[in-house]
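Hello,

Following up on my earlier ticket. Below are the two sequence lines again, exactly as submitted.
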Amino acid sequence: MSDTVKKEKSMILQKEMIGGLFKELGNTKESGKKVVYTFVPGNLSELIRSFDMLPVYPEINALQSGMRKMSGDYIKEAEKWGHSEDVCTYVKCDIGMMLKGNIGPTGEKIPDPDLLLLSYTGCFTFLKWFENLEHLYPGVPVALIHTPYQENGEITAEMTDYMVKQLKNDVIPKMEKVSGQKFDPDKLKTILQHSADTEDLIAKIFDTTKNVPSPIDAYFAGVYYIGPINIGFRGTPEATEYYKELYKEILERVRLGLGPVTPEGEMEEEKYRLVVEGPPNWTSFREFWKLFYDMGAVIVSSSYTRVGGVYKNGFRHDPDRLLESLSEYCMGCYTNLNLNQRVDLLGEEIQEYKADGFLVNSIKSCNSFSAGQLLIMRTLEDKLEIPVGFIESDLVDPRYFSYSNIKNRLESFFQMLEQRKIMVD
Amino acid sequence: MKRFYLGVDLGSTTSKAIIINEKDEIVGRGITNTRANYRVAVEIAKLEAIFNARFYLLKKQLGEEIEKHPEFGKYIDDIEMAFQYLQFKKRSDIFHSALLETANQTYKDELKNNIIQIIENIFTKINPLLKTEFLEGSLASSNQFFRDIMSEKYNEEVEKLDKELFEPMMLVYDKSITPVENEMVDFDFKDLLDRSVALLKKKYSNYANKEEVSGSFNAEINILGGNYEKVSDSLKKHIDFIAEFEFHIANMVGTGYGRALLPFPEDSIKSEILCHAFGAHAVFPDTRTVLDIGGQDTKAIQVDKYGLVTSFNMNDRCAAGCGRYLGYIADEFSISLNELGPEALEAEKEVVICSTCTVFAGAEVRELLNVGEKRSNILAGLHKSIVMRAMSLIARSGGVKNEFTFTGGVARNQAVLKYVSQMVTDSYGSDIKINIHTDSIFMGALGGAMFARRASLKNNN
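Thanks for your patience. The regenerated structure is below:
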């Protein structure tokens, strides 16, 4: 029972944080706070916060609309406006939501942007997305950083320099203008220290899956765990507080030898441990999750929970290298890693977390995630001789989630793992 | 007691059943078309497999005797043929009554009487025709199902009628065929056997009485014609034995897209991907890549040396490029599925046809016919396009490694086979061994039966 109470504490904290943020967003007219629209990968939340501005993440709004079964209508609205069926469904959902009054997940209206900030250009769709937002919000300033791809699997000093220059010459002056505040390095330093603390905790939390049974599901529950940092709380004391609490709860689960919590209670038997690549489907998130926990499958690591930052490889925001560390963060985001880096990262985790299989959920409309996934899968299969599986769905377009087909493939995949276990035994 | 194991593969188009013995050898096969009532489809396939297995046991028991006396083999084959005929006849009689009943309920007065008379005429004509085709022709071994045979014969007759009668006759047919197909009909092996023996006796006594036989007569029939009574007597005790043999199915496994609906316990339901791979690997142990093209799924499967799946890839968004695509095309051309492949093989070239959508392909076909393209060339293009889609799935699943085995209902189509062999060789080299088996459609059921045997052994241990 005590476990349930503690579990609730982190959830209550998270709910309060998110509720508070949307309230603040609904109140910007009175408070005069400025609003920056930006994206999760390579986000500069710390910099935004240092100017006392509030971030809004359109793709988070889109996924929440998906979970609340509203994305279908929003997408229809965007298609009516002229977007083709093949356009990223996050974009269409977000634009549809804006066209329908921009009401956020808590029922409050999301304020219009005062600045559009694009700090990761690895996803070409982001550029096009902002072009559309410019049309929807004429006259709003746009700050855009070109983020070099880690083609050779490393961030060089030149790459960092190039990024820092863009921050200094373009982003910061625009932020100063929009917010009416001077850039304050000391303030940013404090914020980055909070970020580093939070990031330490997050790395530890996702590392608890090395326990058998794993105390958490690092994909389906994982998306809730990364919620606070992906919605703009990185760099705040509240975030550190939340992750401290969450880590404490998880450690208690480890101590008691408990498995992960699912929407239908605790998972009783851990039968398969998986590493999953790719974002989940949001429109049928619960059904999708259920297909796994019903079969006793727990995800011990997922690449998706790294979209807000790859901390496994040691990256932390550094209060002593302000703009350099922000730049490195942008360039270190998961989809900016080259395929070899992604293979290495996933491969390490498959081994470290003793995974029985590797599964790809490929997203129809997300090129930045999906490109190369088959190659990643093949390489891991050959290198580690691990059973692999491949399913396809979509982010928030309910038309592209075929329950029976996905179930059929997952059943085959799990039976494949089981057969292998029997043979190995 | 001898133990046997059953595998049932409930596919989208056909339902297959396989019975194996304790050495994983196939002893019985059964197949029927999948219909709305899955239970009936499965029971029919299963019953056919059990009957087939009894005949297998009979032949096995006779062993060398059959080699010494080819007339024994012929006699047993004939009995199996008569068996199929008698089962067909029983369902056909039910269908006959159902048609009359439907006509009675649907129409009135003169039209009704007219229709009833036509139905009677049709059956008076086709009954003896079907009997001859079953017992003396090749209908029993033609892989055609009740619905196919019936619709072909019925349509042939109805097409000759006046236009105003065509519609009501087809309506009566459509309303009656499905309930009849979904009805379970009981058969007793011993009863069928006695009636088959009697039927054959009549058939051969006719031959024996004929002084001259035509050139098409084969030697075995000649032997049997004169020796019929003798052969029948010497086999009687063996036949009685298998009729009374208690057939013990120790365990069974169901697979296929309709597997969740099978009346089997949960742990006896297996994914068709595992079953197809396991079956194909059992027949060709060096297989590392399996391609299965079924009714609505194409699966490219990689297996390890134990026959276990290491990865697989399936068509995701559309069933174009699967068996149903061919079925649709056959309908477009008003020819039977079995005729598609042979005609495609006569092509001079392959017309390029899109395979992303079955219905669109249909539109393309009409357009091509319109501009005067030869039917065989269009068919060749359609077959090629199916294989091209399958090749893309193979590539996605990791390519062809070592031996390649092609399974599923579509593997029976010679034109598909031709393009599969061609394209596998082109893409992966001419030293890749390509396996096709006459039982390719049964691989899923075979894998299921093998899993059933292993599960049973494990439980007993």
